[in-house]
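Rotation project, supervised by the postdoc (A.L.). Task for the rotation student: set up a whole-complex structure prediction and record inputs and outputs verbatim in this book. Inputs entered:
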Amino acid sequence: MSNTSAKPTQTKPQEVQGRSFWQRVFVRKGISEGVLLPILAVFTALVIGGIIIAFSNLDTLAAWGNFFQNPLGALSSTWATIRDAYSAMFIGAFGNPVEIIKQLGIWLKTSESKQLLTAIRPFSESLVISVPYILAGLGVAIGFQCNLFNIGAEGQLYIGGLATALVGYGVHGLPWYIHAPLALLVGALAAGIWGFIPGILKARFGAHEVINTIMMNYIAFRLTDYLLSGPMKSKGGIPVTPNVLPTAYLATLFPSPVRLHWGFFLALGLAVVVYWLLFKTTFGMEIRMVGANLRAARYAGIPVTRTMAIAMAISAALCGLAGSIHLLGVDHRMVRAFSPGYGFDALALALLGNSHPMGVVLASLLFGFLRGGAARMQSVAGTPVEIIRIIQGLVIVFVAAPEIIRGLYHLRSSRHQTQATKKA
Amino acid sequence: MSQTVLVNNNMEIKSRRNVNIGIFLMVEAVAIFLLLGGTRGMISTFVLSSRRAGVDIAAPDLVIPTWVSILIAGSLVGLVSIWQIVKGFKRRTNAVMITMVSLGVGVFLIWATRGKSLNLTGMLVSSVIQATPIALASLSGIFSERSGVVNIGIEGMMLMGAFISVVFASLTQNIYIGFLAGALSGLILGLLHAVLTIRYRMNQIISGAGIIILALGLTSFLDRAFVTSNPALNNPGPVLASLPIPLLWRIPVIGPILFNQSPVIYVLFFLIIFTHFFFYYTKWGLRIRSVGENPKAADTLGINVYTLRYISVLISGTIAGFAGSYMSIGSVGLFNEGMSAGKGFLGMAAMIFGNWNPGGAFLGSVIFGFFDSWQDKLSILKVGIPSEFLQMAPYIATMIILSGFIGRSRMPAADGTPYKKGEA
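Outputs recorded:
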């Protein structure tokens, strides 16, 4: 694996005297290590991802085959592959800046908006993807704060989607201001109950939540298969549910083809709520205390069992909401491959965001852009979209083992460890 | 794995648990009696003879009167449940419990076969086949966790082994090189896990999750980048033929199940016996166990904790890679994205079920294998239960087992804790 080769061979970080170049650059500008490390982790992962992209390109490989005849050709071919892939990714993520500015000018002059909307569509698509990311990331982060590993986010997403779809197409005659919230609420509730099960099993019987949540993922997938091919199937051959009623739609902010919907602001609002819950309420403190030191929490009289189970339920409810909001805002119906792994990605998001709502939002936006861009990278540069998952795996490794990054960039070790590594 | 007992009052728990089990058995008895309806005068036929390599291995059919057997089993479970509530079985509770649950499953099979016939030998043969990757995964887990390192990444290592072995077997058209390459790829991921968790003292669960995501990404990425456009790479030739052991394979029932299987299954049997012998009768096994129980004490006695942990995790990775190779070139003959489908986690659950002992883990794996294989057998019988629900069975069984319903398991004391020389 490429990242084993990335392990530092330099002296131990503690022995590095004085500040390194990078630290001097960044510290002078007032960027603390808590911010610097994740940035460097993502940067390193992208570099390694670029190398993998280059060496999965057949032309580049052929050029390297001729390395001894034409060493410059090999290098330039490598560089060209990486540049093409990442620039396709950039345009896929943000749209073509030149085009956007041009269309903006046209819109200002003629108020003809169709071309402009098409130009900003990639940007909005990235934000659309970041919505389930933010919510699922928040969910996993709450689990982390309580020292619970919720790897069942993906299944909870499906459960949330299923329940929301059921309310969305099954309940008639409600005005939109009741129907949509009700559908979201039911989705969150269903997923919350789904997550409460592994939570209570962990808190009460010590059953390992990692394995249990993963098992519940598989159960959720099978349940989805069953419901979509049977009880919840719409008329017609393919296994999908009927469309939800328009009263349950989360309205889009712009006309088609831009699909950005109000769920984006809902997600940001929920991030604030989660921040408030975790850091401004007694219950939030109890969650963090149980996560930091179980025994101390018990001696302090905190109802540990209840706190753990409820924290897991809240975590799952947020992941369920990720599915619900995505369903009401974008897909409008439940399909078999409902989520392309948003729930699995959430683990990386919570780690990258240091389990803090603000950090999770930033990490989610980043991965929203990455995934949004990866789709274009696949169609233009022919790089499979799975590169995202490799980058995610690398980010997880680098964020959770900051010593690697410190060694690579000669950063001095600080006394503050990241949240994730503390919970060994 | 920090399985924490959250309730202090042990005695109270015990008596409550006894009553709980009693109630559970009572429910089971009622459920069995519910099966009685409409089975009067029906007969269940279990075919025991089988046909292997063109040779019929004769065995008399097992003919069971459905109604009577359900009645007897139901009454037995009912009586046992009453005894359990009133008196309790004390130390034998677990054995009684397992017997009663298997009786329930057996009765369900009898009921499902009413008026029809089911090839029981064939079902058991496929149970063992399905159990093989799970059992290998559980052995992999035992090696790692006995030394105190939790290895959630087994799933990812299996996936990597499955992919790499197919590619190498296709390139060389030699299945043994495929197995070797698969095991080596597992070893490399094991090395990554070891470096991250032992050297960098990264949280073991996060490292494992990172490895899973990385393996999922790498295999899917490489599959789409190279293999999809070049199907010759996913064509490892014929799978390993089953190897009948002379004379023994013609024993009715037992022969086809144990002595006419893929050579990998014999390797598995050997590994189980070897692992047991290794851990309980050799110096090195004792040392690894002591490192997993109390690394500080082991260190004081001059045992090199780090080296032993490295070796154990590497062995664990190798076995996991081998298990993955069996899944692809050993049984299906090609690679599918995400083909490990939770087998690694089932293996970990089997390990916990077996109390971190090879024999018990194998028993657990066979149970999972049975539930894994029963869906296609039962679908032939048209039980009326949707196949999706039958597919959930192994996952639900895992959760029940993990909840300590069948006795609380005791894991190695230092499992999951990084060790740092000179720290308390």
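Student's summary: The first strand of chain B starts at residue 43 and ends at 47.
Supervisor addendum: Confidence is low (pLDDT under 50) at residues 1-8 of chain B.
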